Task: structure prediction
Amino acid sequence: MIRHLPNSYYEWGVREGRRQVMKQKIVLKLLAKEMYLNEIAEITELSKDEIEKLASQ
Result:
């Protein structure tokens, strides 16, 4: 059990990282379509600041 615990945290981190990458791709596609920040924030559940930060990268 103890050896399995770190693996589960690692796997969780990998999944979470993939989710963030997918959100970033979605944000960039929606911005390319000239969608409003309010709508993107509602769809992705990110703040406007987070969206602007992703857009500037």
